[in-house]
Amino acid sequence: MFNAATYRATPRDLALVAVFTALTAVLAMPTITISGIAPITLQTLGFMLAASLLGFPWGGASVALYVLLIVVGLPIGAGGRGGLAVLTGPTGGFLIGGIVGALVTGWLVDKWGRSNPFTVGLANIIGLVLVVYVIGLPWLGWRTGSGLFAKLTLGFQFVPGDLIKVVVTSLVVVTVARAYPAIATKQRA
Questions:
Q1: Strand partners, 69
Q2: pTM, 2 dp
Q3: How many Å separate Cα 33 from the centre of its chain?
Q4: Which residues contact 56 (CB under 8 A, 6 or more apart)?
């Protein structure tokens, strides 16, 4: 069961949430649009790094703060977009899925550790690929009026890039965990 007292935020936690939110905003700026609807960015790399390095619940908090800043109008979304329309539009489900996926990934990485690139990668595939697709693709289909086949076809364009991001994240997390062992053990006050 979730115990809020266990996850009391320290100033360090809050600073790291802000740093990873800013990193995600920077990674979201370069955009490639293939389908005309869903842009391809490095935003999910920011989500993966935040979730894998900060763990549960701070990785999810970083992604939630990023989404909140977009909703209030900061132009930090994919391609410099901001405002409530980004969340309610066709790609809003991927942002909501990112919050849930970051919580799942953070929990799994905290449970499995940060020293093995395969377990870090698997945690990211489960949380920030599968969970995001399960939430984002139906949302995309709902907002665009497309059928199941169209949703799946559109979703497949993201798979190779997401798998590359998983590999990069795994290597970065394992390297950081070796250089800074305190993050690997995840000792909290």
A1: none
A2: 0.90
A3: 19
A4: 7, 103, 106, 107, 110
